[in-house]
Design brief:
- The chain is of the alpha/beta class.
- It has a single domain (2-210), classed as P-loop containing nucleotide triphosphate hydrolases (Rossmann fold).
- The chain has helices at 41-49, 71-74, 90-100, 111-117, 133-146, 163-178; strands spanning 2-12, 15-26, 30-34, 56-62, 68-69, 75-78, 151-155, 182-186, 197-201, 208-210.
- The strands form 2 sheets. Strands 6-7-8-3-9-10 form a 6-stranded mixed sheet, sandwiched between helices. A 4-stranded antiparallel sheet has the order 2-1-4-5.
- Strand 1 and strand 2 (15-26) form a beta hairpin.
- The longest helix is centred in the last third of the chain and has 16 residues, at 163-178.
Amino acid sequence: MRAVATKLKGRRGDSVLFDDIGFSIARGEALVITGPNGAGKSTLLRILAGLLTADSGAFVLHGDDGAALPVSDFAHYLGHRNAMKRELKVSENLDFWKSFQRSDSGEGMAVDEAIDQVGLTGVAHLPFGYLSAGQQRRIALARLLVSHRPLWLLDEPTAALDKRSDRLFADLVSRHLAAGGLAIAATHQPLGLENVRSLELSGIHSAASGEAWT
């Protein structure tokens, strides 16, 4: 599997945020997108996820046979918000996502196992709203585990996490990559990942700086 972006151009309102963005990552690889506030990191991720339309260019996810795959069926998008109902139990939220994002690309973890993996054993019965901000973010990460999707698109994934949880996040992503997954993350903070590629968005109406691949 390979994720390929070609000459992407994105804007916010009348302002062009970035232009001529290109990269290619394969199984086991991660791309970290950095840049100042307003440079377009979140906009780029939303374009990759299919939530926004690019002005020009393309993003294509290719299967191992080279055929184009629908990103909506093969990618997880984790944005700034956790996408959980505060009134529902942790287990009910994760059960919903496991069912809603059921995939033909593989089985995800059981809900209890995913909760264990993010270090929150014993909270399944609690309403999501009872958890601290850091715990809520960790349960949002558990959403990535309960249904299998090869490509993870992560926007500020370590927001609200403490140092211990940062390491837990890095371990989760490393295991995902080792199993043949792909990850693209936008961040202001180091993610603790090794051997990742980087893409820096330098500002309004500019092309990316740093590495680019084909």
